């Protein structure tokens, strides 16, 4: 049995503009059926990353609120429908099904904050992005781990 392919890339982000630039570059690689799992402590930049990615795929002037209270927000983009989930308040994977999980997995792009709440629904083919605080107040470190087909796509995200 062959081990699943996995590739990791670490990118230091000096400020929110660098985070938005990375989000645009990730967005250019997304297609229907993809899942991006956003991990990190509160305030690490998961929602800022998701906002920049959604605006890059659609209209840069779109308002992209955090789905903390609505649990999911959807956006029509030329690439595919984007579903932005914030699962922080969920107690388990069964609640995700009620939010349209099967629908997004069929033909959309899933951006998921707090993906650990997915449990066994977490797909093996995905891009994990862990955001952590950097040495400066505005700095972040992004650790991207591509699973399956995403392992091959990560190389194009390396900074020149």
Number of strands: 7
What is the helix tally? 5
Structural class by helix and strand composition:
alpha/beta
Q: Helix share of residues?
A: 25-40%
Tell me the fraction of residues in β-strands, as a range: 25-35%
Low-confidence stretches: none
Mean of residue pLDDT?
A: 88
Question: What general outline do the C-alpha atoms trace?
Answer: globular
Spatial strand sequence of the major β-sheet: 1-7-6-2-5-4-3
How do the SSEs run, as a string of H and E?
A: EHEHEEHHEEEH
Largest sheet: 7 strands, mixed
> Alpha-carbon distance between the termini?
36 Å
Radius of gyration: 15 Å
Description:
With about 160 residues, this protein is α/β, with parallel strands linked by helices. Helix content is about 25%, strand content about 25%. The protein is built from 5 helices and 7 strands, in the order βαβαββααβββα. The chain has helices at about 15-25, 45-55, 95-100, 100-105, 150-155; strands at about 5-15, 35-40, 70-75, 80-85, 110-115, 125-135, 140-145. A 7-stranded mixed β-sheet has the order 1-7-6-2-5-4-3, with helices on both faces. A hairpin with a 6-residue loop joins strand 6 and strand 7. Helix 1 (about 15-25) packs across helix 2 (about 45-55). The longest helix is centred in the N-terminal third of the chain and has 12 residues, at about 15-25. It is globular, with a radius of gyration of 15 Å.
């Amino acid at each position: 049995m062959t081990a699943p392919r996995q590739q990791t890339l670490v990118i230091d982000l000096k400020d929110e503009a660098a985070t938005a630039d990375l989000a645009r570059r990730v967005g250019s690689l997304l297609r229907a059926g993809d899942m991006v799992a956003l991990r990190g402590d509160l305030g690490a930049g998961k929602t800022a990353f998701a906002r920049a990615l959604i605006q890059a795929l659609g209209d840069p002037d779109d308002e992209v609120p955090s789905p903390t209270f609505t649990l999911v927000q959807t956006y029509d983009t030329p690439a595919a429908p984007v579903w932005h989930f914030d699962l922080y308040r969920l107690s388990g994977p069964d609640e995700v099904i009620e939010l349209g999980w099967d629908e997004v997995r069929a033909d959309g792009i899933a951006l998921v904050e707090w993906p650990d709440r997915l449990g066994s629904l977490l797909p093996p083919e995905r891009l994990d992005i862990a955001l952590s605080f950097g040495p400066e107040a505005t700095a972040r470190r992004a650790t991207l781990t591509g699973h399956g087909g995403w392992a091959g796509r990560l190389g194009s995200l390396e900074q020149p």
